């Protein structure tokens, strides 16, 4: 009903321009009046008239829409290219998702709703309603027959036609919002399209359409109101509450139910924004984290206080349960909001907000609360086992503990499975006490009186305090704020608000279920023990033993014990599992960025980071959410650029004028703070890009070594520069000075190491930095923010986030970028350089694409060549710029080489990054497996094969290495960089063939040459050394050692990166000179001796 009212709200807003509240009141009051005044016959008569009016209106709209020139009739509609993919009668059977969601499941639901064996007339309430409303079997058959024709064959088609036409007129939601400027944007969704189309209808027909829509609304609502009231009166009130009720009592209850249902659905409709949202709410009911929390509100500790309150004071303390439940709803909702909006649970927020002393106190209190509650829960379950099976308490506790450990295993199968299990236990408790209420037949009048606040005496006050204490438990707040983060929520304002709404409904429904259970326990105690003058029943065992004689059925104590076991078991399952040494303690939800020495808070859109590591969920394997980071806009990017520009201040800022020793000290301090974050950064490298744990450690440690080597190299350069040079009567000092603002962008495959091979040299040479992390491997830089902020003057290091194609172009166009340091694509580098207004002023330090080849001759050591080629082509899944990306093997040894190569590949361990000895790990790029599969398909199309077993097979983000042979120049694999675990193999007859490949290639980084023939090596060396920047003899291509030059030719690089070369690349030689005269000597000595200048100095750095 709420979704029907929501439709009325939207149509009224579009067609009549009235507010949602006005629409609800207007439509609701009219419907409510005739629904309460009339009965079933009135509904039938009005339904007939309303159906006819509604059909005339909907058919009229569809005919008019088809005559619109934009549609072009029925032929134009079905042939429109906009609808070409939306008119298939059957879904794509190769797409299993569409097959199940759009075809199999709807058919199954329709079959179930009308008939299924053994349960005639089936699960369909609509069909049952028609049958039961008829006066005899013959009329029932007619009713069902007419209903199916009218409901399925006739009614939908006019609406379908208008819906399809609306896709042509309003292809996007934005176009729909533009067309409805007078309507509140929050209620404009895709389901507003029908109303928008109706606006085109001429006035006469428009009036009929509005009348038909009102008729459809009133027909649906009145039917559901009478239907629902009938269920409540006959199936609940008459059967369970008052079996002797007369007609007038049933009529009163029925009309009251109609009013209550109408008010409830109207309130819900005002909260909804779309019908899909209502569907999501239904899914969230029974599937949300609220039920995980609610079990803590119905544990055995609550039972004891509820039984004591009911047995001593009857129904008088029900109001305390209600008030404590309202408190719980408010507190749990606030806790959930913290988790959804801020991405922190209460414990994390407390740790960030309070000093250590306060946090330690909070920790101790939380542990005590958990221990106290668990004591009640474990003992409660043990008591339940004893009551049912006469098991001693000690053995019951042992079974409880063992059972808890077994269920902790279940949580590793997915949080949603755990929630489903908890829900089953909660429903078990609820069902048990529903039956207890039926057995007990409590006094409804006294129950209502119990909601009036009163405290009979001091003893009642103590029990009321106990009820509140057992209900509002602090550790549940910690839990709820953490559980809500297990949901995937898009980080934008509308989706966050929607998630808050869902979590509120989830909390209200689940905690009110807990309230009903607690109220049922108190009511049970009041209606049995209190009425029997047993005022001292405060023990669970006593309650169990007294139930059977007081209620006269053996099922009462059995259900009581079963519910107790379920309560004790479910409550113990809310303990968090302890993470292993390889797991992240918590998702890293970054909500700040570093600009001008400030950690600026971010409240805008964020990008969710999913690890390439997939974990089991109820929907199969899915990438694990490990955090999120800001999606900054051009505004924030330009602010960061201005901060870097101001800090450089045309070379006059604090950092560029600081002496070398001072800059080195800052970097050394940064290095110390960076080492403190080693464990977290290593884990983030592993989880973000799927790099093995061992390789992640190596990347961090190698980066640290590089920074120390850079410091040592700068000291050497400065020592050499500290002397004056005298030439031809000119005395001079030559030092290196900074270039300006450096835009630094690193790669995802070595997000720490390769980024810092440009960032650190640029920084230590006195430049100011604008750093944009890569799309993958982003979060790992966040732990270093504080080190950057504390160790360098404000504005020297600025870290900006966002879509590169959105924010970087304006940075380049500003002309304030002096150096572009990019490790990535040559295409991107070329486009960015073109954007700079003065390209001659822009220095570029670029590490770009590569298609490094391996050439294996017949004189090579095949075992060595295979070993090095395996390492070179498949280390870190082949996702290295220096990886061997094509192998040229002399034809007369290619078969033997492939045999050995395939054998070695079969020995590679494929698995998760934390596994020992793993070689192939998940790929970080979301669509990379699809790209690699396409590359293989292209090769197969042109005659190649995958020669190793399982090569090219995909399991979510895992891609089994594929050896493709024979590769020829007609294939993409021959020319394009695959950057993944595919090994193209080319057979050649003459060495001129691979040399030709090197000459014609657009890449020119490195080559590996395998041969033990010195003359053969010498014969080609002079040719290939002029095609690439490094020739590796009998070894794989590689970057190290870091003191060696690392560069490339053609489209592979610009500038040279090694420890020393990088320092030179990010600086320029500057000279201070004068004629060698006595006056000038005295002048220079004064400046040097009195340390007046940082540049002109003879200080020697040790």
Automatic annotation (TrEMBL):
Membrane topology: Multi-pass membrane protein
One annotated Gene Ontology cellular component of this protein: plasma membrane
Official protein name in the record: Aldehyde dehydrogenase domain-containing protein
Membrane-crossing segments per the record: 12-37, 49-78, 99-116, 156-173, 205-229, 249-272, 279-297, 317-340, 360-387, 393-411, 420-440, 460-479, 500-526
Gene3D superfamilies recorded: Aldehyde Dehydrogenase, Chain A, domain 1, Aldehyde Dehydrogenase, Chain A, domain 2, Sodium/glucose cotransporter
Protein family according to the UniProt entry: Belongs to the NRAMP family. Belongs to the sodium:solute symporter (SSF) (TC 2.A.21) family.
PANTHER family assigned to the protein according to its UniProt record, in alphabetical order: NATURAL RESISTANCE-ASSOCIATED MACROPHAGE PROTEIN 2, SOLUTE CARRIER PROTEIN FAMILY 11 MEMBER
The entry's keywords: Membrane, Oxidoreductase, Transmembrane, Transmembrane helix, Transport
GO biological process: iron ion transmembrane transport
Every Aldehyde dehydrogenase domain range: 622-1067
InterPro entries: Ald_DH/histidinol_DH, Ald_DH_C, Ald_DH_CS_CYS, Ald_DH_N, Aldehyde_DH_dom, Na/Glc_symporter_sf, Na/solute_symporter, NRAMP_fam
GO MF entries: cadmium ion transmembrane transporter activity; manganese ion transmembrane transporter activity; oxidoreductase activity, acting on the aldehyde or oxo group of donors, NAD or NADP as acceptor
Main location (coarse class): membrane
Localisation per UniProt entry: Membrane
């Amino acid at each position: 009903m709420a979704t029907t009212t929501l439709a009325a709200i939207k149509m009224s807003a579009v067609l009549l321009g009235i507010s949602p509240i006005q629409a609800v009141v207007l439509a609701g009051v009219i419907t409510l009046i005739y629904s309460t005044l009339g009965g079933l016959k009135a509904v039938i008569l009005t339904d007939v008239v309303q159906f006819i009016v509604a059909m005339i209106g909907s058919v009229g709209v569809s005919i008019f829409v088809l005559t619109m020139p934009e549609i072009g009739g029925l032929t134009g509609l079905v042939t429109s290219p906009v609808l070409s993919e939306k008119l298939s009668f059957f879904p794509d059977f190769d797409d299993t998702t569409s097959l199940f969601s759009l075809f199999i499941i709807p058919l199954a639901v329709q079959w179930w709703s009308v008939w299924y064996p053994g349960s005639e007339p089936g699960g369909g309430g609509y069909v049952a309603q028609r049958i039961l409303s008829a006066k005899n079997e013959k009329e029932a058959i007619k009713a069902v027959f007419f209903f199916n024709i009218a409901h399925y064959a006739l009614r939908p088609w006019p609406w379908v036609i208008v819906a399809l036409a609306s896709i042509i007129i309003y292809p996007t939601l934005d176009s729909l919002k533009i067309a409805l400027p007078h309507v509140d944007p929050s209620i404009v969704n895709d389901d507003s399209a029908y109303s928008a189309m109706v606006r085109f209808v001429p006035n006469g027909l428009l009036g009929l359409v509005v009348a038909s829509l009102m008729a459809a609304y009133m027909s649906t609502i009145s039917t559901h109101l009478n239907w629902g009231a009938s269920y409540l009166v006959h199936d609940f009130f008459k059967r369970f509450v008052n079996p002797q009720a007369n007609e007038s009592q049933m009529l009163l209850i029925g009309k009251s139910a109609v009013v209550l249902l109408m008010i409830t659905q109207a309130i819900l409709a005002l909260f909804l924004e779309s019908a899909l949202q209502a569907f999501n709410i239904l899914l969230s009911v029974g599937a949300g984290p609220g039920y995980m929390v609610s079990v803590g509100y119905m544990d055995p500790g609550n039972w004891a206080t509820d039984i004591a309150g009911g047995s001593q004071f009857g129904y008088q303390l029900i109001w305390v349960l209600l008030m404590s439940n309202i408190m719980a709803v408010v507190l749990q909702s606030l806790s959930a909001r913290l988790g959804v909006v801020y991405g922190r649970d209460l414990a994390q927020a407390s740790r960030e907000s309070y000093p250590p002393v306060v946090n330690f106190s909070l920790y101790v209190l939380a542990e005590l609360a958990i221990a106290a509650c668990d004591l009640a829960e474990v003992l409660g379950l043990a008591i339940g086992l004893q009551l049912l099976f006469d098991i001693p308490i000690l053995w019951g506790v042992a079974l409880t503990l063992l059972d808890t450990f077994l269920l902790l295993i279940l949580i590793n199968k997915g949080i949603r499975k755990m929630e489903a299990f908890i829900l089953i236990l909660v429903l078990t408790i609820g069902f048990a006490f529903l039956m207890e209420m039926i057995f007990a037949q409590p006094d409804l009048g006294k129950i209502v009186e119990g909601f009036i606040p009163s405290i009979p005496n001091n003893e009642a006050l103590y029990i009321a305090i106990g009820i509140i204490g057992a209900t509002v438990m602090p550790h549940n707040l910690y839990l709820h704020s953490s559980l809500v983060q297990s949901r995937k929520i898009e980080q934008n304002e509308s989706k966050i608000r929607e998630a808050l709404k869902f979590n509120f409904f989830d909390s209200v429904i689940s905690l009110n279920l807990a309230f009903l259970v607690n109220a049922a326990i108190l009511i049970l105690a009041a209606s049995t023990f209190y009425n029997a003058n047993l005022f001292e029943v405060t023990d669970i065992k006593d309650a169990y033993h007294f139930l059977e004689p007081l209620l006269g059925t053996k099922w009462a104590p059995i259900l009581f014990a079963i519910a107790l076991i379920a309560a004790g078991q479910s409550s113990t399952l809310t303990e968090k599992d302890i993470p292993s040494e390889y797991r992240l303690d918590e998702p890293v939800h970054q909500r700040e960025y570093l600009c001008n020495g400030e950690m600026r808070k971010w409240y805008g859109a964020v990008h969710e980071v999913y690890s390439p590591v997939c974990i089991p969920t109820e929907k199969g394997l899915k990438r694990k959410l490990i955090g999120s980071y800001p999606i900054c806009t051009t505004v924030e990017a330009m602010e960061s650029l201005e901060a870097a520009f101001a800090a450089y201040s045309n070379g006059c800022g604090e950092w560029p004028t600081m002496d070398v020793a001072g800059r080195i000290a800052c970097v050394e301090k940064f290095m110390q703070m960076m080492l403190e974050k080693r464990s977290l950064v290593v884990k983030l490298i592993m989880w973000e890009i799927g790099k093995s744990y061992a390789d992640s450690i190596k990347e961090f440690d190698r980066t640290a070594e590089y920074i120390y080597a850079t410091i040592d190299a700068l000291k050497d350069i400065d020592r050499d520069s500290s002397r004056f040079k005298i030439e031809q009567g000119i005395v001079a000092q030559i030092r290196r000075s900074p270039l300006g603002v450096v835009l630094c962008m690193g790669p995802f495959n070595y997000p720490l190491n390769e980024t810092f091979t440009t960032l650190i040299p640029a920084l230590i040479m006195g430049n100011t930095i604008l750093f944009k992390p890569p799309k993958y491997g982003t979060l790992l830089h966040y732990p270093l923010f504080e080190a950057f902020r504390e160790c360098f003057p404000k504005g020297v290091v600025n870290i900006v986030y966002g879509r590169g194609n959105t924010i970087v172009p304006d940075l380049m166009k500003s002309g304030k970028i002096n150096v572009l340091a990019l490790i990535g694509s040559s295409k991107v580098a070329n486009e960015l350089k073109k954007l700079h207004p003065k390209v001659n002023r822009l220095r570029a330090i670029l590490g770009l694409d590569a298609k490094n080849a391996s050439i294996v001759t017949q004189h090579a050591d095949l075992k060595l060549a295979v070993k090095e080629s395996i390492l070179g082509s498949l280390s870190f899944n082949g996702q290295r710029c220096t990886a061997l990306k094509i192998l040229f093997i002399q034809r007369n040894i290619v078969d033997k080489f492939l045999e050995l190569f395939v054998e070695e590949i079969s020995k590679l361990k494929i698995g998760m990054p934390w596994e020992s000895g793993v070689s192939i790990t998940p790929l970080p790029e979301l669509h990379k497996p699809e790209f690699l599969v396409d590359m293989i398909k292209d090769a197969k199309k042109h005659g190649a094969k995958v020669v190793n077993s399982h090569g090219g097979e995909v399991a979510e983000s895992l891609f089994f290495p594929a050896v493709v042979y024979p590769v020829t120049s007609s294939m993409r694999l021959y020319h394009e960089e695959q950057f993944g675990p595919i090994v193209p193999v080319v057979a050649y007859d003459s060495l001129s063939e691979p040399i030709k490949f090197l000459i014609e290639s657009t890449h020119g980084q490195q080559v590996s040459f395998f041969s033990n023939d010195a003359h053969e090596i010498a014969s080609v060396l002079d040719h290939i050394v002029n095609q690439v920047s490094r020739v590796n003899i009998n070894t794989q291509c590689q970057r190290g050692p870091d003191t060696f030059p690392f560069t490339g030719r053609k489209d592979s690089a610009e500038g040279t990166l090694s420890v020393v070369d990088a320092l030179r690349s990010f600086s320029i030689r500057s000279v201070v000179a004068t004629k060698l005269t006595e006056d000038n000597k005295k002048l220079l000595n004064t400046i040097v001796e009195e340390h007046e200048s940082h540049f002109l100095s003879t200080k020697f750095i040790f």
